[in-house]
Design brief:
Helix content is 34%, strand content 19%. The strands form two sheets. A seven-stranded parallel beta sheet has the order 8-7-6-11-9-12-10. It has a five-stranded mixed beta sheet with strand order 1-4-3-5-2.
Length: 272
């Protein structure tokens, strides 16, 4: 059982994991280097624990102590109780959910390890918006995608905003980083995946006609908002696919497009 420690000094070094949560550049550098990430809100904290992430500490406003009592009783990590004003001074924003936890990261698996057991894979190139990362992971979890592979310059799925938008789905879908881009796509192809590049290009095949759900193994490639997949990534694909549009709309937000494409990829998938 953890002790509940009341803290009234924003400079207390025990709160260092929570300093400057709105400083994106600071947190992007610091969190992976120190092997931590921040879970925000009761549901996300519980989901992180259910999927095996070890807790380093919790930061709670007083009214959330009772709500999180069962978690407090189960974990040995310290629990810091603070006033809302102090939490805001430390984190840089109003913590309206009242509960934060610093969690220990797990080592990432290798891409070939995930590919050995997966059949439906998401491959993201240069998706560096944390909201989009979170939305894509949530759709991937909901619609039955087995794994996510990230190009080296994709945003961190465990950044606080990504975790929050995904509602903790980033904990449910295994992911790995591809070290060389786009050369590492050969690793995907060698694992017998067909690489489908999602693009609004008129030369692309309708995703319905491509019928990716009929393929034994398929890797769906997604690019960043606005720019889409790079020329190099498109040339590395086995086929270009597009979502048919109506009313003169040329494309969807990458998060929305991902959800539509995942449904097309997963629906009717052959049984083991």
């Amino acid at each position: 059982m953890a002790d509940i420690i009341t803290v009234d000094d924003p400079d207390d070094p025990r709160l260092s994991d929570y300093i400057g949560l709105t400083d994106v550049e600071l947190r992007r550098r610091r969190e992976p280097a120190e092997g931590l990430f921040i879970a925000e809100g009761e549901k996300v904290i519980r989901r992180a624990r259910q999927t095996g992430y070890e807790m380093r500490s919790m930061l709670l406003s007083a009214k959330w102590v009772d709500v999180m009592r069962d978690v407090i009783d189960e974990v040995p990590a310290p629990v810091y109780a603070v006033a809302p004003e102090l939490a805001e001074r430390v984190t840089g924003y109003h913590v309206h959910r009242g509960a934060l936890a610093s969690m220990q990261r797990k080592p990432l698996p290798a891409a070939d390890e995930l590919l050995a057991t997966a059949r439906r894979v998401v491959v993201m190139e240069s998706v560096n918006d944390h909201t989009n990362i979170g939305a894509i992971f949530r759709s991937a979890a909901a619609l039955g995608m087995d794994a996510v592979l990230l190009s080296p310059d994709c945003a961190d799925p465990l950044y606080r905003r990504s975790v929050k938008v995904s509602m903790g789905a980033v904990f449910s879908v295994p992911y790995a980083r591809l070290e060389a881009w786009p050369k590492s796509l050969e690793t995907v192809r060698e694992a017998d995946f067909r690489l489908l590049a999602l693009t609004p290009d008129a030369k692309a095949t309708s995703i319905d006609e491509a019928a990716p759900h009929r393929l034994e193994r398929v890797a769906l490639m997604l690019g960043a908002e606005g720019d889409g997949l790079s020329t190099r990534a498109l040339m590395a694909a086995d086929e270009w696919v597009r979502i048919p549009m109506a009313h003169g709309v040329d494309s969807l937000n990458v998060g929305a497009a991902a959800a539509v494409a995942f449904y097309a990829v997963a629906t009717g998938r052959p049984e083991n």
